[in-house]
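Let us practice reading a record.
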Amino acid sequence: MPRKPFLLRIDDQLLTAIQRWAAADMRSLNGQIEFLLRDALRRSGRLPSRVAADEAAVRASEPELE
């Protein structure tokens, strides 16, 4: 899936909180923001079906952490 760059303006405190969360989850800042957006779209039922199917396939192939 091709990725498109874009500029994001964000509150400094929000950015700091997301950076800490990304570090705790061992993700890049961009990866964490993408994760949060995808999760919000999935929960609201607005994630395109092709993307949802791709996400389900990735989750099914990942080993479960105990």
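A brief commentary: The chain has a mean pLDDT of 84.
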